[in-house]
Amino acid sequence: MTIRIFRYLVVPVVVGSFAVSAHAVGNGLYLGIMGGPATNSGGTQQAVVQQDYSLPAGPGLPLPSPTFTPVTPKSTQFATRAYLGYQFSRIAAFELGFQFYSTIKYDAKHVATLGDPTVRVRDVDLLFKGIIPFRDWFDVFAKAGIGYTYVTTGSAFNPSIQNTPANTTTGQPATSTIVTRNEYITKVSPIISIGADYNINQNWVADITYTNMQVGNKVNSVSNISIGFSYHFVDKYCGQFLCDD
């Protein structure tokens, strides 16, 4: 599935790119956006089954215990990254990016869960980009850096015991039950990317990039293959001289 989507993305870009004249892109500031199919390497997790867990509360009484069911992640997502970069030489640049992955949904195989069995991953990243030029119009590159990741784990994965005191007005006795809540985790994660780019002209660049980020927790890692376009704020040259436009 991912390979088929990747082919649909790559072929129009490659064919379209060679239909126009290409030139070397100079050093300077650039803005870009990229997107494509993503996947995660997280395995089967345990989610809380939806049922009545209420028990009378009090000294010496048993506490409720959650019942779990195995759930498996749907591996296919979509990744989008917007970034600001600065190329300070023909072979090196820095990028500051914001990356968003679509929600990872878990299959409970028709078992109702107490809460939402999902995980979401987002990050703010800082990457160093090393570039190997092959032509004025074609480069290969590698990126490495860190991402400050923000992971939201769905409530079905996070059970806790909630005690409700007795209500003397209604005569309702004290109870203990299982409740679930979303969990929010932040951490620093390593990121690596490899890819190639094509200089459509002296301002516009198209690229194909594979990215992997080690998230840990239930997700383990996320990776994606993306098509991107960036605009470079550089002077245009006509031969050895600045163009009139």
Descriptive report:
This protein is mainly β. The chain has one helix at residues 2-17, and strands at residues 28-40, 45-48, 55-56, 68-73, 76-89, 92-101, 104-107, 118-133, 138-153, 159-164, 175-180, 183-199, 204-216, 220-232, 237-238, 241-242. The strands form three sheets. Strands 1-5-6-8-9-12-13-14 form an eight-stranded antiparallel beta barrel. It is elongated and about 80 Å long. It starts with a helix and ends with a strand.
What's the structural blueprint in terms of helices and strands?
Elements lengths: L1 H16 L10 E13 L4 E4 L6 E2 L11 E6 L2 E14 L2 E10 L2 E4 L10 E16 L4 E16 L5 E6 L10 E6 L2 E17 L4 E13 L3 E13 L4 E2 L2 E2 L3
Q: What is the H/E string?
A: HEEEEEEEEEEEEEEEE
Counted by DSSP, the helix tally is 1
Helix fraction bin: under 10%
The parts where pLDDT drops under 50 for at least 5 residues are: 11-21
> Percent of residues in beta strands?
over 45%
**Total beta strands:** 16
Radius of gyration: 25 Å
Report the structural category.
mainly beta
Main sheet? Answer: 8 strands, antiparallel, barrel
Question: Which keywords apply here?
Answer:
245 residues, mainly beta, eight-stranded antiparallel β-barrel, 1 helix
